[in-house]
Amino acid sequence: MLTHGGGPQASNVRRAPSSRRCGRLSALQVATYGVLAAVALVCGYVESLVPLPVPVPGIKLGLGNVVVLYALVAFGPRPALAIMLAKVCASALLFGNPTIFAYSLAGGLTSFCAMALATRWRGLSVVGVSMVGGVAHMLGQLAVVAFVLAPHVALGYLPVLLLAGLASGLFVGYVGRLALRATGSSSFMKGWRRRLAKDRQAPAGQTTGRQAKDGRETPERGVSGDSH
C-alpha cells in the first residue's frame, strides 16, 4: 500500500517550473527519471519484506513514495506521475497480482492528484503536501475496497487507515524534506538539476552547448513523451 505523510515545515513548497516547449525527453531526463523509478521500486520491495506489526493488513510506511514526492517538488508533476506509474506497474508485475495492482493504482493516482493540487497552495510545506497525499491515498484504496467488497467494509476501515495515512505520511514527508535539502546543498546535484532544467527548456531539435563542444551538430534524439 502506498502512503505519504505530512507535518510542519518552515519553508513553503517550491514547485519546479513547467515547460511545454519541448516534445521529447532528452537522454539525461530519461536516465534521471529511470533511476528514480528504480530507486522507488527497490524501496517498495525492501519495505514489503518487513511488514509493520499492525492488525490491519497492507499498512506500510511508503518508502517508495519518498521518491515520488521528491520528483514532484524537484522536477514537477509530469516526471513524478511517470515515476509513480512505473513503480506501481513494475511492482505489481514483479511482486504482486491484479488485486494489489488495482489498490496501488487507485491509491497512487488519487494521492498524486491531491499532492499536485496541494503544491499550488503556497502556504503549504513539503511535509504538508505529503500529508494530503497520504490521506488521499487511503481514500483511493478505500474506494476500491467499497467496489470490490462492500461499502460498509470500507467504512469500517476508514478511521484506522486515515490515521495510518497521516502517521506514515508524516514519516515520508520528513524523509522527503531531508532528501530535498541534502540534494539542494550538493554542488553535484545543483549542476545536475541545472542541466536537466536546460534540457526541459530547450526547444525540440536544438543542439546543446555540450553537443556543439563535442562536434555533434545533429539534433539530439529523445524518447517521445511530454517534457517537464
**Helix share bin:** 55-70%
The pLDDT mean sits at 78
Global shape: globular
Order of helices and strands: EHHHHHHHHE
Specify Rg, calculated over alpha carbons.
19 Å
Total beta strand runs:
2
Structural class designation: mainly alpha
Measured by DSSP, the beta-strand proportion falls in under 5%
Largest pleated sheet = 2 strands, antiparallel
Helices, by number, come to 8
**First-residue to last-residue Cα separation:** 27 Å
Low-confidence stretches: 1-11, 17-22, 207-228
In spatial order, strands of the major sheet run 1-2
Tags for this model:
228 residues, mainly alpha, 2 strands, disordered N terminus, disordered C terminus
Notes on the structure:
The chain is mainly α and 228 residues long. The protein is 67% helix and 2% strand. Strands 1-2 form a two-stranded antiparallel sheet. The protein starts with 23 loop residues before the first strand and ends with a strand.
Write the layout of secondary structure elements.
Elements: E1 24-25, H1 27-49, H2 64-75, H3 77-95, H4 98-118, H5 126-148, H6 151-184, H7 187-201, H8 209-214, E2 223-224
Antiparallel strand pairs: 1-2
Short description:
The protein is mainly α and 228 residues long.
